[in-house]
Amino acid sequence: MSSQSKIKEIYERVLEAGYYIFLVILLIVFITPFVWYILNSFKSTEEANAIPPTFLNKPTLQSWINVLTGQTVIKLPTPWSKWIMNGLIVSFLTALYVTFATALACYALAKLKLKGRRFILMMILAGIMLPGPSILIPVFIIMVQLKLLNSLIGLILLYPILVLPLTVWITISTFAAFPDEIEEAALIDGSSRIRTFFTIILPSLKMTLVTTFVIAFLISWGEYPFAYVLLRSYENYTPAIGLATYLLEFNIFWEEVSVSAIIVTLPVFILFTLLRKYIVRQIFYGIVR
């Protein structure tokens, strides 16, 4: 083996080692806050605010009990279980509507010869690039006029408008790749276009629809700016807004913040862990295509 080959081999090994070291450091950076939150959730108020920090001297479930029953230090009038239910209702109904609307839009844009198709796609792309907070004031005014301020219905009607451009953009390529021959064969056999859509195309793309549902659910679950502006009463809070109630001006109750953060993160973690392969593939496939 020549000296140049040895140098090249050493260089590749060093580069590979550096790559893995970088990944380990990145993993530690991302994992450390979650580990810290988990440890804090089992600490008392005194131990959570101790300086220097302690590991876990006297584990307790009191913070979990306080948060889930509403008996927190701040004395919130609404228990966390109510906020979780609000979040589930808003996110589930939003995801359900977005999934159905995305399927219809993607089929129309991918399979039907629509005039202005390119213009519509450009408007969808513009909707993705538009910063959400830039339309907070118009949305607030519209919700006031429709008398939907401080209402979960208002969020359920609003969130699909915010989520649809993204889900359509990353899903349309999957519908475009569906073989035209299968649809044409069904139409020749006497099936209507609507029946073909519901009985052949949608069942064939069920994992795409599941991925779209999950993406819409996760975005709705963690949305903060619009929920913060539109929701006024504790009873209508979603988990993302409820988490912010623990951040006081002069004190932060880290043990209760940690429990709340875990509750907010848990559905996201479970869904992404179970379906990460499909989510990553769908996003990557949609972007590349």
- Distance between the amino and carboxyl termini: 43 Å
User: Sheet bearing the most strands, described?
Assistant: none
CATH architecture designation of the largest domain: Orthogonal Bundle
Structure class: mainly alpha
Helix content: over 70%
CATH names the topology of the largest domain as MetI-like fold
Q: In what range is the share of β-strand residues?
A: under 5%
Low-confidence parts:
none
Mean pLDDT: 83
What sequence of helices (H) and strands (E) makes up the elements?
HHHHHHHHHHHHH
Summed up, the domain count is 2
What layout of secondary structure does this protein have?
Blueprint: H1 3-41, H2 45-48, H3 62-69, H4 80-111, H5 117-129, H6 136-145, H7 152-176, H8 180-188, H9 193-204, H10 206-222, H11 225-230, H12 239-244, H13 254-288
Question: What this model shows, in words?
Answer:
The protein is mainly alpha-helical and 289 residues long. It has 2 domains: 3-67, no CATH class; 69-288, MetI-like fold (Orthogonal Bundle), CATH 1.10.3720.10. It is built from 13 helices and no strands. It has helices at 3-41, 45-48, 62-69, 80-111, 117-129, 136-145, 152-176, 180-188, 193-204, 206-222, 225-230, 239-244, 254-288. Helix 1 crosses helix 13 and helix 8 runs antiparallel to helix 9. The longest helix is centred in the N-terminal third of the chain and has 39 residues, at 3-41. The protein is globular, with a radius of gyration of 24 Å. The model has no long low-confidence stretch (mean pLDDT 83).
